[in-house]
């Protein structure tokens, strides 16, 4: 009897194992087919967009009409951006086509920059045409490399999903290499590798766009003086955190961070509330407080937005930020986040921003971000406006109701700044901010004001 039961149990276990194996195999096949379909789609999208972009750039070079040039440059802008997106989704394990991605991003952005210049009535300079022709030629070579990859994948019957195959453990790989000497054979993705290496040697592309080479390493303009010691950074960090929380902190750990803005990154522990940890960054140059984050849970609000604004304004003034204007605010997790911008005379300096987060349960400063301020703040020679506020109003679409006009310095792509009139308008129930260049009268930017719970945002 016992033997019969054991036989039945073993048989059931075997059937379950076989069934699980078949189910697992079916799942793997489904996943492999999905990856294969996605890989083929992304590769042919990449190839198609690259070929289209080089054709569109060629048409813009061949055209003598600024309007047609702008049309073709806009097409090339979108096609290069779509090619970059397809490349980012393509399965290329072991290969990081960083230079190819950067090339596509720069090509897209450069075409956008030229199209906008033409739309404003400008003309392409001889240097811009030479740069555009160089990008067109490189795009053509990239298309050839992609066609080569396509041919290799097809001739070897490779599947994109195979690039995700499990890698053999190192000891087994060594034994296999000893048993079967490796023959030098071209890999199926050699086209990608060759293209990426060649694009690495491209000359710098300098223009007024966000992907311009001269903007890759911006430097902080708002930091002055020499480097501070770690001990001095820790002293400044604890003093700032003590003031933010009206408490007493000690340093738990300190490390260094070498990004665009090198800092001492500290963790502080509240001696009165041991579970409360504050993360704070102090710039090495000048010892300024760049950011602070207190992650404690915030209880039910006892303060409203107006009281939070009073607390944030007083904290700013106490730390040397006397001339700051609150711009926008939003409530998140019982915290009120208020964005301040520096003010010079009657001009709002939007590049020089500081964000302050106030806990609505007790008024504690739980967040601080002065990175934009220290990256952008410096003594500027602002131009004298050639337009009056009334003339700026006259530039607005007559279908909009104007609610206010003031001078504002705004940041634009490419790290440039423009002095504008910020014209607050309303269309039906929606509010907008239109920025009219105070010198040329051109419309530089339009933002929509979006009401959210506890504040407003601009988009």
UniProtKB/TrEMBL annotation:
Identify the taxonomic lineage of the organism of origin: Bacteria, Bacillati, Bacillota, Clostridia, Neomoorellales
Instruction: Show where the Sporulation protein YpeB N-terminal domain sits.
Output: 30-161
Is the Coiled coil keyword given for this protein? yes
What keyword terms does UniProt attach to this protein? Coiled coil
Q: Name one Pfam family in it.
A: YPEB_N
Q: Determine the domain of life of the protein's source.
A: Bacteria
| Coiled-coil spans in chain | 125-152
What GO biological process term is on the record, naming one? spore germination
* InterPro entries per the UniProt record, alphabetical: YpeB_N, YpeB_PepSY1-2
- What is this protein identified as? Sporulation protein YpeB
Gene name of this polypeptide: ypeB
Residues forming the Sporulation protein YpeB PepSY1 and PepSY2 domain are 192-383
């Amino acid at each position: 009897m016992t033997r019969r039961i054991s036989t039945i149990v073993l048989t059931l276990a075997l059937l379950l194992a076989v069934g699980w194996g078949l189910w697992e195999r079916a799942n793997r096949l489904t996943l492999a087919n999905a990856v294969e379909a996605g890989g083929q789609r992304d590769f042919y999208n990449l190839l198609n967009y690259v070929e289209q972009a080089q054709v569109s750039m060629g048409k813009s070079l061949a055209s003598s009409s600024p309007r047609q040039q702008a049309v073709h440059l806009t097409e090339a802008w979108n096609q290069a951006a779509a090619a970059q997106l397809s490349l980012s989704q393509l399965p290329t394990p072991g290969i990081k086509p960083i230079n190819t991605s950067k090339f596509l991003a720069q090509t897209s952005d450069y075409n956008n920059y030229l199209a906008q210049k033409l739309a404003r009535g400008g003309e392409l300079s001889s240097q811009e045409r030479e740069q555009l022709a160089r990008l067109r030629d490189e795009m053509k070579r990239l298309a050839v490399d992609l066609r080569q990859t396509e041919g290799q994948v097809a001739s070897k019957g490779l599947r994109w999903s195979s690039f995700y195959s499990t890698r053999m453990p190192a000891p087994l790989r060594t034994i296999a290499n000893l048993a079967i000497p490796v023959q030098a054979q071209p890999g199926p993705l050699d086209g990608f590798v060759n293209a990426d290496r060649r694009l690495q040697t491209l000359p710098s592309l300098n223009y007024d766009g966000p992907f311009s080479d001269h903007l890759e390493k911006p430097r902080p303009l708002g930091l002055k003086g020499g480097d501070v010691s770690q001990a001095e950074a820790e002293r400044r960090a604890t003093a700032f955190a003590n003031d933010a929380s009206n408490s007493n902190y000690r340093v738990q750990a300190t490390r260094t961070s070498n990004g665009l803005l090198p800092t001492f990154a500290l963790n502080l522990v509240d001696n009165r509330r041991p579970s409360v940890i504050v993360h704070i960054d102090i710039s090495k140059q000048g010892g300024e407080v760049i950011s602070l984050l207190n992650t404690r849970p915030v209880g039910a609000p006892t303060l409203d937005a107006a009281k939070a604004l009073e607390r944030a304004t007083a904290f700013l003034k106490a730390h040397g930020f006397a001339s700051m204007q609150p711009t926008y605010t939003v409530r998140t997790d019982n915290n009120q986040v208020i964005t301040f911008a520096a003010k010079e005379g009657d001009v709002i300096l939007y590049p020089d921003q500081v964000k302050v987060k106030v806990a609505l349960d007790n008024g504690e400063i739980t967040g601080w971000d002065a990175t934009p301020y220290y990256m952008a703040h410096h003594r500027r020679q602002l131009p004298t406006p050639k337009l009056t506020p009334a003339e700026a109003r006259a530039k607005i679409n007559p279908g909009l109701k104007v609610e206010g006009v003031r001078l504002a310095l705004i940041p634009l792509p490419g790290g440039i700044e423009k002095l504008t009139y910020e014209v607050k308008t309303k269309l039906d129930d929606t509010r907008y901010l239109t920025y009219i260049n105070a010198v040329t009268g051109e419309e530089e930017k339009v933002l929509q004001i979006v009401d959210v719970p506890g504040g407003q945002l601009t988009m």
